[in-house]
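Re-run with default settings, no changes from the original entry. Doing this only to confirm the output is reproducible before filing.
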Amino acid sequence: MRDPLSPFRACAALALAVVLPIASAFAQGDGAKGAGGASALAEPKLFGHRSVVDGLDLLFLHGSDDEQAFTEGYLCAERIQSLFADFALHNDFVPKPAAWDLAMRPQLDRSIVVDERLRAWAAGVLRGMAARDPATLTIAELERDLTVDDLLGIAALPDFVGLMCSSIAVFGEAAKTPGPLVARNLDYMATAKLLEYVQLVVRTGRSGRADTISLAWPGLAGVVTGISDRGVFVAIHDVMTKKIGRERCVPRTMALLGLLETFTPGVDPAKAAGDVLRTSRYGMGGNVMFAWRGAEGLAPGAAILEIGPDDFTEDGVTVRGPSEGQTFVVCSNHYRERAEAERCWRFQALVDGLQKRESALEFAGLRKLIRHSQVSMTLHQVCVDLSTGELAIRVRREVDGNNVGGRWTEPKGLRMDELFAEARRGAPAAPAAERGR
């Protein structure tokens, strides 16, 4: 059977070959530790809390960027430390831990550009970790402490070894509600901590920025799947075209974070979103599922934003909307506007699954439909009705090599409005143990 990651592995190996010669688990579960691992005498003021719903970890944050960053670092200190070692130091792009400092970090330093706001966020996370327990900053494999550039580098790694993924958005007469109904599979290589530490993060209260919900991991300075209270949905997919040039590029996960936090749908949302993304240059091709909720004078809809590395094109982003009369868009990790469409069974499975229906798609049907394109590498599934706020999350906890196998966590009864309300309130509505029953 052909290895689906073989092109990604080859590109990662090439990058290293070029560079090497040159060079409390919650506030309740992690254990309340202070300096040196001793029991904390007084917990610092925090701007958020953690809880668990049916086995899924939730992180609720409110306040300023700096307050949220400190709180995330404090509540997730041991997890961030473990994830860095597990994900950044043990994978296809870093064959051994020493290669992070010898090869990958120098490559990142030369090739990416990061907004100062995100650098400040990363510094805040590290302050929170240090306040929880200074020992959580130590990366034993590197014999040094975690740095701002290490944290930011994690968000750039998908630009070196990409994601696959598939998604669909349904609206108009094809949907039971105004919608859009949006679903996505995130397909990526699995590590033990990526499977264990996935969490739903709810952020509220930052001046001028949307409140957001994202499914990600502690300490990630970007977004792979996200929703805003302004009715925007974004999800990343990769297309295996890479930049060959010398200009610094913005990691796509960071560009999508900026889009999610600042975009308000108005006239021609797809074109406007494409214009936002065109302000950056990119080092890896990709597709973005972009969907928006309807409002007065604005119909709900969706489009695919096809991102091209700047050396391959002048405009950088192509907007692919639905065909005339079509009330859905489908996405996988292949271009369909920027280049001649490639055959993709995952893409076709979603199209066929929708078109075979005899009635308008309802939310339960959406949850079944997205499994048509699930693969053995699918790490999570997100389904949302942007008109009602109904949300369904499904995360894989172990991989067995089969498309439909493995062990999954699937919390029930999630709603966007209730999640935002809990984050804004600053405290759980009920003890975590009760909410998980």
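The mean pLDDT is 86. The longest helix spans residues 116-132.
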